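User: Before I run my own analysis I want an independent prediction to cross-check against. Here's the chain; please return only the structure tokens and, at the end, one sentence I can use as a sanity check.
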Amino acid sequence: MRGFVAGALGLALLGGCVSGDGGSGFGDRASALPPSLAYRLTQSLTTEVGPRLAGTPREAAARDWAVRTLKDLKFGRVAVEPFTIKGWAREREEAFIVSHGDQALAVTALGGSISTPKAGITAPIAFVASYDDLLLAPPDAYAGKIVFINDRMKAARDGSGYGVAVRKRSRGAIEAAKRGALAVAIRSVGTDNTRFPHTGNMNYDAAVKRIPAAAVSNADADQLERLHAMGVPMRLKLVLKTRAIADAPSGNVVADIVGVEKPDEIVLLAAHLDSWDLGTGAVDDATGVAIVVAAALKAAGPEMKPKRTIRVVLYGAEEVGVHGGDAYAKAHAGEIANHVLATEADFGTGRVWRFASKALEADLPFFDSVAAGLRDLGVERGDNKSGGGADIAALAKKGVPIVGLSQDGTTYFDYHHTANDTLDKVDAAALEQNVEVYARVARAFANR
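Assistant: Structure tokens:
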């Protein structure tokens, strides 16, 4: 690991990949180019640590990796800020259409789901076309049944299809239980047509009976849809075994390149260190980790002497409730007013195409000038209504200025929260464009 970092650092300070003809390397996929620091970091985290489920020893291994890496990259202050969460882990997940030859479905438990009984739950399927249709159903409409919610997610550059589609994952178990369901299964919240089911966090309501919750791959959801269209009754067997982990350890890794003129003023670059456990968390969010680390170094320059402190925060336990974001805001409440900017990378490696902000009217001319400096990279100016990312939302609510850098999410949800989220999905050239954009933004605010 230390040998990897030493070689990578030089590439970071040279500004990333450079093609053989002297080009920037920001064109098509750069598989023939030497690996940049950002790509090497992504490869290292996904290979040496792998899946990083919050509250588990693998997330702890990721924190150790981050501390070691950031120290080797000469960040001035590196620390772990621990907190605890209610952890969760999956152990067994199976589903079969028992009414039609025991056809096996590719299925995964949703994060936080309770277990089924040991023998599973076998019951008729109540096929519900959408989450909105579920809400229209009267009490006890699905008594004794397994509800299947069939919303399809639509791909979009800005990821806007996610908000509508994720409702069934977040609240499907609550609303199905209110209507008497024994369990809930959903069409995966994703835009692929593979047999990789998408996991993700779900919620319970203390006032409503808890029922098991699972996601079916989109290809298998199509199979259920075809059977439903035939008008034939379906019965499903669902077996889930999960376990809760009380007081599971997590934590944020905070690293500073200390400013030489205004060290108490902070430009914060954020990503989350944890991932779901099915894949290796490459696009969600090892690439984000790599982007902000490499961008911070590039923004600081070879002398590592920015005017203001550039802080990288690698948040823990984002996937299971954004606990790291809340913990950081609480731990740093006394210096929140010193944060001159926060921005986050958590949307894969699609090229950055839009610069949005949340700033005071008096500061907008400066924000506009920073955005103008990104036009050559294909970045357009967005509005002044950015909420930032999930982990910096708590800072945004407290008035910290925000830059939201929109990455192209057209294919992001093909892999999001699946076993297919692996290193081969990373576009090396687009990764470098991200680093350059984040570095220019960080440099502008750090040296303003």
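Sanity check: DSSP finds 13 helices and 14 strands in the chain.
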